[in-house]
């Protein structure tokens, strides 16, 4: 039994006493003497190497390098107040801008412009058509050779070639960019360097114009919408004002102005009423006091009353004179007295009329005040209503102002960007045009090439003579140390025969097949025509382009252990057994075969599971499964021909009957031929039957599949107990973690 908790040391064959081996070599003095003896040949070899190097250098096509210098200042010219892109003043940001511009020089847009300007797609150096000798010969017979491909393909080839001819580099801590272009023609190299510089400047200007034009187009597209929005807001404001009688100047409404004027008129009316009331009261007081009612200022200012008073005074004066001259009964005196009484009555009547007028003025003033008060109250109520409606009015006014501000801002920005289309704010310029190079950049000078050839030739000759000297010393030593076996005296005495001890088993290796090692595909969706591809059966298979995974390394170690147990020059046979579903074991078998085929091993997979036949059923269901052309492998009487796949794996499916003898025969045929480097048997099914045990006896090694969802140690004990004496063929254990069950796996210290 194998104990997993104890290390197992590999057994080593009992090597007998080895003969003492003499180390052969040369010390420094011997090496110096050897080289001195061969100095003529070494010098001659060096001269030959120098001549060969010079000849090779002469045969190489010279390359010429031309350099153009650009000054790319990220701080662009500020021609307007508001630029489309803000300027960065950070040093690291400026350096990144310059590096980005350096990458822009080698962009496809710049290089394609250079190709179109210089017609590089027709230049043989850059993939264009050339006047070859064959074309010239065919032209003599009137035949024209047309290059295959469209002009677009020619430009693409020229673009790839031009990319290989360009090297753009930025000088550290500066804004200077060097454009290096090499060519077989010095004038062409300088021309291309200058053309790339000019194309970059044109592209930079064009990109700014395109950006400004795109911004102008976007802004103009929004202007109509903003204008319509502003018009809608203004119409809504005007309709609301008309509906709610909001009429007035820009500062105040008419209702507010009317309210102020009415208030002022009411105050004036109240003052006039008080004045009229005072006049009337004064007149009434004078009349009730039997005083002179005409003594009030308004009566004194009346011309009519003044005339009457003057006449009354003149009549009384004349009455007094006549009374003094005439007797009481004189007719003239009586007439004068009557005239005085008439004048007095007229004055009284005039004063009464004045009082009545004052009373009328008072009544009119009161009526006017009352009407003004009612009008003012009505205006106050209207003002309150308008104040409530002005909340919505102010909201509409704010909406109009906001729409107007946005529209004016977009309109102004649109006009600015439209003017920026014709402005070039780039601060990049050419500070050094490329000139025609006078010296080639490759190959180097002939003196240097000759020196390199001289050194290499001398070193090669010295190494050759040293190796010959070493081999000449080792060969005689081997003949003296290994005497012929036919000499009786040289044979050591035979040890007494003893019963050979059983070989000690190597500890099996452990591998884990995880989800990260495989990829899952849909066989129906990924199926293509042609030869069968095992990675497109719908099973999880190893990921491509991962040659150094843990699983692949473990598989390499298992194959090395298997090769040590098999005979030399014979394909080893590995059987895959294990507990669990046969479907899962076949998936692991397929991945073991793919791991071997990835290392260049020719693999034959035999389906020996006569019960489940998961692999055979999968291949039979695939429409691309077809027999190998040389189908010499067969199982039983039915010809189950081997299926060749594009993965370097040949699969021999099962025929569905007890055919253990036929499988052993197929294994013998595979071993006898040199077509396969490894034979993998999928099965037999577990637990082993009698036929399965016979098949186990034929194979060179076993690999046990343990599902991670089961008790690993218990499964391993069952497998070892079921194998019996064949347990020593177990070279590895593969833990299948592809379909782990939800239950926790039982893992003990032995597993760790």
Describe the 3D structure.
The chain has 752 residues and is an alpha/beta fold. Helix content is 54%, strand content 10%. The chain has 19 helices and 14 strands. The protein has helices spanning 28-37, 39-59, 91-105, 108-118, 133-140, 151-165, 186-243, 254-288, 297-300, 303-325, 331-420, 446-481, 523-526, 550-565, 582-598, 614-621, 660-672, 690-696, 712-723, and strands at 64-73, 166-170, 176-183, 427-432, 509-513, 518-519, 541-542, 573-578, 603-607, 643-644, 649-652, 678-682, 701-707, 730-736. The strands form three sheets. It has an eight-stranded mixed β-sheet, sandwiched between helices. A four-stranded antiparallel β-sheet has the order 2-3-1-4. The chain has a two-stranded antiparallel sheet with strand order 6-7. β10 (643-644) and β11 form a beta hairpin. α4 packs across α7 and α17 (660-672) packs parallel to α18. The two termini are 18 Å apart. Mean pLDDT is 77; it is low at 1-24, 139-146, 475-504, 626-639 and 740-752.
